[in-house]
Design goal:
This protein is α+β, with helices and mostly antiparallel strands. It has 21 helices and seven strands. Strands 1, 2, 3, 4 and 5 form a five-stranded antiparallel β-sheet that branches. Helix 3 packs antiparallel against helix 6, helix 9 packs antiparallel against helix 16 and helix 20 packs antiparallel against helix 21. The longest helix has 35 residues.
Length: 559
């Protein structure tokens, strides 16, 4: 070689929680040597250690450089430390490679580490579903046990949603400030403790208070989705989040079976006590639950993020990226509600609030509608629809305990959500999040409208179950899209604020599905159809399709 030749030697190195340790030079077979003619030596010497890795060798005309390999060489993707020197003057510059959290997650892929997190996060989802499903079983039981009036029964359900509406945004803010794992453990402890106290309540007022705090605790469970989202590679993210929703179905089914076994012999108090057991198991399992590496990185805790990445690499049996983990600028503002209304995010936030409100309003509406309409005997339901209102009830305070048939119907109602989950699982990565959400709402609108065209009891049941199938599917989509669109600094509070708006829909829907239904069936069905149609339009107006996009770390990066 001449004086103008350059020799490039790669140096092997490894990292331990962000600290660089050199194992020594790889020479001989590991050396790469090639000539570059007419190279400007001024490009060789640089005070910037990344310049060699991020720039091409430029010849005298600032265009292509030819060497032994016969092509221009780009070193921007080097995965090791490199040194190079001019043989004529022995000048040497060393370059240090780096990688981002996104690149690390993509390289480590989906494996046993993510499966472990999905099972632990799924436990939180199961426990919350149990507490929610208990509501449909507790009200008729307390009507018999305490002789409650109708409005007092309704308040036992509504007060849980009030607690959830208050708690969702607060837990989201705390999650962005102190961590996803912290919020999951504390909210689960709230839910468990006051769930058990509910079993000891001696008056309606005390039960109301305890169930309100249970709802407050349940609202923190959605942060399991935030944590899970932040450890998933792009290609596996949507399907993995949709799949974890099966834990909600399992929790609902478990609660129904538990009630079928416990209620006839032991009563509602033991049902509430046993319902807290999955929460105890979840809190114990959190010992193996790592904190989100994205959250740690947003706080500047690089070593903690590297430790979690190394655990992921070891569990998935994948090599760690070589180099230094790049920490984004430390986010001083985290978990601020104002971050949801920045120039970049305000339109998305308002549209998501419409979608979340509509989802919960229609979901719990179809659940209540199903109960009310199926309560009408035989084919009288079509006569009631034709007349436009429900038949008068002789005695509203008749005590009717749930029968085996009722529990079986509850199981079938829960099973209606599975087809919606399957449809979204296969469609969300094909047609995208926006069109998946819009199509689910449109199909719900169609089937809820067909309920008014009653051709018999079986026909009506099929329409109601199809409507529930599609509205539950839209719920799966929004749970994927929301944590994807918000950046790490406000992802949790974004999800929490959306959840709060959803609970507002759950609070007011009983007045439509139960009160207005008795006056006008057509008006009731029309309201649900219009709300769902509006949500489908809102879905299409969302400014960003997140399919295939990386998660962002700051609001200004969202585009």
């Amino acid at each position: 070689m001449g004086d103008d030749a350059l020799r490039v030697q790669y140096k092997s190195r490894r990292f331990d929680e962000g600290d660089r340790l050199y194992d020594g030079d790889l020479i001989g077979a590991e050396s790469v040597e090639f000539d570059i003619t007419n190279t400007r030596r001024s490009r060789v010497k640089s005070d910037d250690p990344n310049e060699f890795a991020n720039n091409r060798f430029i010849n005298g005309s600032n265009e292509d450089a030819e060497g032994d390999l016969g092509s221009t060489r780009d070193f921007s993707n080097m995965s090791s430390s490199a040194s190079y020197r001019s043989m004529g003057n022995n000048q040497e510059v060393e370059s240090e490679d780096t990688f981002t959290i996104e690149q690390a997650i993509e390289q480590l892929g989906y494996g046993k580490f993510q499966l472990k997190i999905s099972c632990i996060a799924g436990l939180a989802w199961t426990a919350d579903a149990i507490e929610m499903m208990v509501l449909s079983i507790l009200s008729p039981a307390l009507q018999c046990a305490w002789g409650l009036e109708t409005y007092k029964q309704s308040l036992i359900t509504s007060i849980v949603f009030v607690g959830m509406m208050v708690g969702s945004t607060l837990w989201g803010s705390l999650s962005d400030k102190y961590g996803r794992k912290f919020v999951l453990v504390v909210s689960a402890a709230f839910c468990m403790y006051f769930g058990i106290l509910s079993a000891l309540a001696v008056t309606w007022i005390w039960l109301l208070l305890f169930r309100c705090v249970v709802g407050f605790g349940v609202s923190g469970g959605s942060q399991a989705v935030t944590l899970y989202t932040e450890i998933l590679p792009v290609k596996a993210r949507a399907k993995s989040i949709v799949a974890i929703e099966i834990f909600w179905v399992l929790g609902s089914a478990f609660s129904t079976i538990l009630a079928f076994i416990v209620m006839p012999t032991m009563g509602w108090r033991w049902l509430l006590a046993f319902s807290a057991i999955p929460l105890i198991i979840f809190i114990a399992a959190c010992f193996w639950l790592p904190e989100s590496m994205r959250f740690n990185l947003s706080r500047g805790h690089v070593n903690a993020a590297m430790k979690t990445l190394q655990e992921c690499a070891d569990t998935n049996k994948k090599p760690m990226p070589l180099g230094r983990l790049i920490a984004p600028p430390k986010q001083q503002r985290r978990g601020q509600i104002s971050d949801l209304f920045t120039k970049e995010m305000r339109r998305t936030t308002f549209l998501l609030w419409i979608i979340w409100f509509s989802n919960t309003f229609c979901y719990y509406g179809i659940v209540l509608l199903t109960t009310e309409l199926l309560d009408i005997q035989n084919n009288d339901v079509c006569n009631a629809i034709a007349e436009g209102h429900l038949p008068d009830v002789e005695c509203a305070l008749d005590c009717q305990s749930l029968t085996s048939k009722n529990y079986l119907e509850l199981l079938w109602t829960t099973a209606a959500e599975v087809p919606g989950l399957v449809i979204v699982f296969f469609s969300i990565d094909i047609i995208g999040r926006k069109w998946s959400s819009a199509s689910m709402f449109i199909l719900f609108t169609i089937f809820i409208g067909l309920v008014a065209v009653c051709k018999g009891r079986i026909f009506m049941i099929i329409m109601l179950f199809a409507a529930r199938c599609f509205i539950s599917g839209s719920f799966q989509v929004v749970f994927v899209y929301t944590p994807e669109i918000y950046p790490t600094s406000c992802r949790a509070i974004g999800l929490g604020a959306c959840s709060s708006m959803a609970r507002f829909g759950a609070i007011i829907t009983p007045f439509i599905a139960q009160v207005l239904l008795k006056k006008s069936i057509y008006a009731t069905l029309a309201i649900y159809a219009v709300v769902a149609a509006a949500a489908s339009i809102a879905s299409l107006l969302l400014p960003v399709e997140t399919k295939g996009k990386q998660l962002q770390e700051s609001p200004t990066a969202v585009s």
